[in-house]
């Protein structure tokens, strides 16, 4: 009897996603976006900051206020980064773990910021209106905006957008299990549904689907697909369509016809340029072009970004008024020292609030049945 040995050809290795490492350049870009928003709040708009300076920022920064006015687009860049990061962190993770990760990331610093700003604004020497105790308590839920309650933190409207994005991604992608096809269908479906919501002018659809911000989140998700496979034509298509729609909404919402009475005249080209640079920066990180930016201090910068973003606006008013009107420091020195003081406060919040509380909250939520 002859025994025949059959030698099978070697199987083709399945294409796997890249091994995830910390993208420190993304941490740096987060801080850049936060500083853009701070520049907008301190010198690129009117409102309460005028009281802090004692006059309009147009007087304090005769030339720079025109550039600071574009800083509000740091929010759109944040949303692109968020789409990238949430897709990365949610891939292969069960729903409970995803929820615990997001809650432990957002809530400790947020709770501390709400309590801190409420306490500071309640001081007799601070000339800014504090919300009522009842409204401050509702703010702890992060649901004050849909409930129509006064906000403690001016920037918390962006967190409400983030939470809705997390919910959509969790239900449509994390719950059934993240796959390339499912993520692509999520991006395509949300894009199409958001367009319908805009056309229908239906408030409920607008609330859920966020047509004006969806392209930025979706673009970030598409860029994570690019990070997994730079030759993925569908991923590049998602990014391209998101950029086209996103720049349209940015121009539509932020451009105004030039007027001598306007605080600042943003040009449509300037708005499109900032949005495009934001997409390009995240794309460069997705493609690995900025892997050389692997300095450890960028990780620290990324850790400070969220608490800095939370506290910088309202507490910045108090610091500006103290330094500029109380100590008569010049505008440029006040601006720099205010940024520095808010970064120091962010470090304290990260060191003494986020680091001890976030792991405990994450563990508690993960263990819950």
Describe the structure.
There is one protein chain. The chain has 369 residues and is mainly α. The chain has 16 helices and no strands. Helix 5 (74-90) runs parallel beside helix 14, helix 10 runs antiparallel to helix 11 and helix 13 (233-254) runs antiparallel to helix 14. It is globular. Mean pLDDT is 92; it is low at 1-19.
Mind summarizing the main beta sheet? none
Strand percent estimate = under 5%
Low-confidence stretches: 1-19
* Mean of residue pLDDT values: 92
Supply database-style keywords:
mainly alpha; 369 residues
Structure at a glance:
This protein has 369 residues and is an all-alpha fold. It has 16 helices and no strands.
Blueprint (SSEs and pairs):
Elements: H1 24-43, H2 48-53, H3 57-60, H4 64-68, H5 74-90, H6 95-121, H7 133-139, H8 144-147, H9 156-174, H10 180-200, H11 203-209, H12 214-228, H13 233-254, H14 268-286, H15 296-326, H16 331-367
Helix pairs in contact: 1-5, 1-15, 5-9, 5-12, 5-14, 6-15, 6-16, 10-11, 10-12, 10-13, 12-13, 12-14, 13-14, 15-16
């Amino acid at each position: 009897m002859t025994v025949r040995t059959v030698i099978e050809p070697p199987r083709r290795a399945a294409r796997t996603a890249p091994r995830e490492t910390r993208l420190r350049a993304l941490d740096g870009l987060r801080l850049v976006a936060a500083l853009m928003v701070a520049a907008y709040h301190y010198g690129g708009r009117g409102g309460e900051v005028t009281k802090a300076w004692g006059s309009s920022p147009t007087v304090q920064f005769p030339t720079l206020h025109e550039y600071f006015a574009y800083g509000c687009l740091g929010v759109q860049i944040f949303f692109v980064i968020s789409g990238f990061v949430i897709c990365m962190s949610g891939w292969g993770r069960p729903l409970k773990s995803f929820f615990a990760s997001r809650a432990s990331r957002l809530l400790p610093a947020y709770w501390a910021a709400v309590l801190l700003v409420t306490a500071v604004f309640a001081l007799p020497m601070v000339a800014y209106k504090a919300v009522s105790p009842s409204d401050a308590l509702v703010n702890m839920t992060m649901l004050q905006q849909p409930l129509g309650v006064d906000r403690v933190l001016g920037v918390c409207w962006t967190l409400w957008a983030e939470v809705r994005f997390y919910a959509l991604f969790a239900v449509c992608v994390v719950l059934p299990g993240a796959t390339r096809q499912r993520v692509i269908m999520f991006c395509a479906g949300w894009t199409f549904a958001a367009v319908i919501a805009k056309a229908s002018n239906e408030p409920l659809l607008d609330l859920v689907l966020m047509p004006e911000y969806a392209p930025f989140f979706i673009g970030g998700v598409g860029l994570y697909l690019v990070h997994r496979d730079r030759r993925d034509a569908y991923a590049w298509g998602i990014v391209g369509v998101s950029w086209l729609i996103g720049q349209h909404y940015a121009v539509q919402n932020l451009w105004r016809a030039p007027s001598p009475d306007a605080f600042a005249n943003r040009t449509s080209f300037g708005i499109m340029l900032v949005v495009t640079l934001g997409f390009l920066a995240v794309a460069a990180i997705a493609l690995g072009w900025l892997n050389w930016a692997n300095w450890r201090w960028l990780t620290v910068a990324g850790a400070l970004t969220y608490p800095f973003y939370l506290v910088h606006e309202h507490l910045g008013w108090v610091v500006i008024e103290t330094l500029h009107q109380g100590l008569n420091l010049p505008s440029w020195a006040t601006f720099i020292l205010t940024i520095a003081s808010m970064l120091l406060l962010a470090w304290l919040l990260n060191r003494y609030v986020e680091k001890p509380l976030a792991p405990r909250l994450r563990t508690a939520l993960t263990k819950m049945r």
